[in-house]
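Cross-posting from the modeling subforum.

Setting up a comparison between two proteins and wanted a second pair of eyes on the formatting. Protein 1 (sequence, then structure tokens):
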Amino acid sequence: MANVAIQYGISGTTAKGIAASVERGVAEGALGPGAALPPVRRLADDLGVSPGTVATAYKELRQRGIVVTRGRGGTVVAPAPAVASRRPPKVPEGLRDLAGGHPDPRLLPGLVPPSRLSPRARSHRATPRLDRLEGAVRDWMRPDGVPAEHVTFAHGALDLIGRLLSVELRPGDSVAMEDPGYHHLLDLVSALGLRAVPVAVDDEGMLPESLRRALDAGVRALVCSPRAQNPYGGCFSEARRDALVDVLRREPDVLVVENDHVSDVADAPLYTITAGALSRWVHVRTVSKFLGADLRWAAAACDPVTLARHDGRLLLTSGWVSHLLQETVYELLTDDGTRALVGRAKETYALRRKALLREFGERGIEAHGASGINVWVPVRDESAVVNGLRSYGWWIAAGARFRLSSEPGVRISVAELEPPDATRLASDFAAVLGESEATYGG
């Protein structure tokens, strides 16, 4: 995004006052993402303060994820500043939404409050997790090779990952992130005042040589997806998993976060890096994609140190995950009817994804989606493709919010895309690409 000259008047005579003024402008929308802040010396002259005071204010804003510094490009408001909410654009009326990444609601179970409700008072902080749900989680993870001796729960995957990163790292530290990667995770890293170091991906997930460069650059943590990588769709092969483990073993102090966010409907086996005898690791699973987004619950298996640090911070904040929610999740995870529905969802999503990939292939369009519910299509001009498909009645996601330094592309969510519709979408996509090529002159 190009820097935007600001019209907002920054005020303040102290570092905290200047930082508060900038934060207020961002929160109110007067300073949008990419807006350029004045150079340190110019703002210092305007406010009648020392350059050191302004530099201290900018440092505080950087540490809190509100601004970023781009070398000669100066200091600008972060793409997703920590004090502003970046919501996805509203789907225009009359368009078919293939941008949201949501599961098909027809393939989700009905959510019914648990029948076993305890009316008596009890110490939830002393027993934050239901024993039977812990057992169900171990039974869920162990067949996939995840060491599940130590497990914990959180209010969703982002909640757990955010808590771990805030405990383990300090503002200014760097995290290795998939590129392209899940935009909410990229935003979270920025909001915590951390620096995302891009690691390239392909159809088998993170590239070992790219990960090695990130580790050499001094990252303190790594966040990756073993399958259904969002947005690219990659999934670890056994060989790729082994290669990544070999790289990670050289840096035993790096916290490895494996986010298996789609798990049961990924249509790919799990080759988990957590089985590689790493020192610091966590394997995270959520149920949003196959039991429902309103179930704000995630489970994690991890090493003992990570468990203690996570649970210690959880105890000081929300304390525990609602036992009513845990009861609901337990009933669903162990219900035969729900298991059958989840199995049908996995098959359906695979059918729909492969149908679109086949249609793209027949038209010579490069596309990626080895697993999961998304397809990534490299394009030259994201805006031209998104706007072009809009004229045909489709709404897809531009790739800019998923990328750090990777090439442009668009993401298409296939969860509700029936095979006959895939044919029409691919035909319209080809037409839009033809129009775009004509604009570029071939």
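Protein 2 (same layout):
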Amino acid sequence: MSVHHSAAAGYAVGAGNYVRGRPGYPPEAAAWLRADLGLAAGRAVLEVGAGTGKFIPLLRETGAEVLALEPVAAMRARLAADHPGVTVLDGSATAIPLPDGAVDVVVCAQAFHWFATAAALAEMRRVLKPGGMLGLIWNVRDEQVDWVAALTALTDPWEQGTPRYRSGAWRDVFPAPGFAAAGERSVHHAHVGSAEEVIVDRTLSVSFIAALPEATRDEVARQVRALIADTPALAGGGEIAFPYETRMFAFRRVD
């Protein structure tokens, strides 16, 4: 499977913005890893599409052995530098460089929409042990908040068919052969920081924005800063909270 242009080009130049602008994950995500996916010391977990490693700290907290697969070299380099001790793999969701039954859990954090195909699911099932778990998790912006909806309206014209969670297309591969649904959770979450970090850097970390020519990216950033300046809840210069819903889905490998 080739890497989508928006991911290959955007994440190659936008790794720094990704680290600064993307939210972490709520405490409920750690509970999900342990209770729903069964992660613990003595087990092994593979994160597919690990990016710069935003989800790695939660995986390591479980005590499990962590392996991280990332096809974009710039993201992979940042991951390796920031998370020593994690086994970092070059590959894709349809070509995982591990033997059959190598891990207890496969996790895709903020990534499954990029490779939501039957072939990718079959490959992830291959590297899972019998009875192993697949976990999918996303931080999804809460567009019930007016300024968040306005931000989306500002950036969506640049989308050009880029795969995203919000399209819902990732759901089309389920139900999937060899997997049984094992529950889902949804919790409120927020990314707290300066508007520059949690809104501007967040916007510039979006794959299809990061892939734009520099002058166009600069114009998008100018428009985002204008939105911040024109929104009383954001314009004060202090910390703001970017609202999200964290959505978690679990599937079990069945034979």
